[in-house]
Amino acid sequence: MLKDLFHEFAERGVPGASVLVLREGRILHAESFGLADVEEGIPCTAQTNFRLASLTKQFTAMAILILMEGKALSLDQHLPDFFPECPSCWEQITLRHLLNHTSGLFDYEELISAGTTLPVSDADVLRLLLDRHETYFSPGSKYRYSNSGYALLALAVEIGSRTRFASFLQRHVFEPLKMRDTLAYERGISQVPHRAYGYSKRVNRFERDDQSITSSVLGDGGIYSSITDLSKWDQALYTDELVSATTRQLAFTGAIQTDRAGTEYGFGWFISQHRGLREVWHYGETAGFTTRISRFPEKQFTVLILTNRSNANIEATPHLIADRLL
Fold this sequence. Notes:
Beta-lactamase, eight-stranded antiparallel β-sheet, three-stranded antiparallel β-sheet, about 20% strand
């Protein structure tokens, strides 16, 4: 039914993709293409775990909302409450600003020294940012997509919960939802089951390109998951299993206009419309992986696409699928 949209992933010996389409909790379509591990010839399946890249941000935001509902922190707390050593230009930045990309913090990727070989962690992001005594703009005045903000949110989760970010997600999100194979990957601490390895195309062949210098930063993109587990996450977002409806709605409420026409940003989600239907969605791009989730809540219709290749051409695919099936 959808094979023509994924023909490039079904070619022989290439990195692949997994796609899942849900409507009202029922699976309309689930299929995997290509290879999770090209060198070993291991195919992608519904249980294959892909690096989510920036789809991780919706989980980081949920962790903050869980702590907020438990009164462990407030969205309007300022960064000095969490990072007392921060420069004065951070004094008016709140967790809310981090969540909706209006903090004005510098992009940490631009601050990494040339020649750095050791992977950067969330704590390293903080150290890099502490050396900057200015921001792009005053907090709340503009939108600028910020991986830095979500790295700091992961640290705020650790401070508010007094536990590691990965452990907090495991205990308060993944275990309750029975997302048994999903995790925030920590090299040397955890192992990814059924792991897809990432690839990038070099001339006419794919080469493994699984990690980059920023791959150890968890808050902005460090979760691995499968379409099977993400279907449980999607369905939980229609319920009060993790947080109340009032709290949950904060994530799906546009707080500011983004640099994309007709698109706002909530907490870990873009909000826009497609053919008159409200769409909440996100994309993920990192070394070796491209991912996408599009949810149409009015129809309880969701498209999940996970791929283990850089720069996969899937931006328009959720809309093509929605146009066919809705």
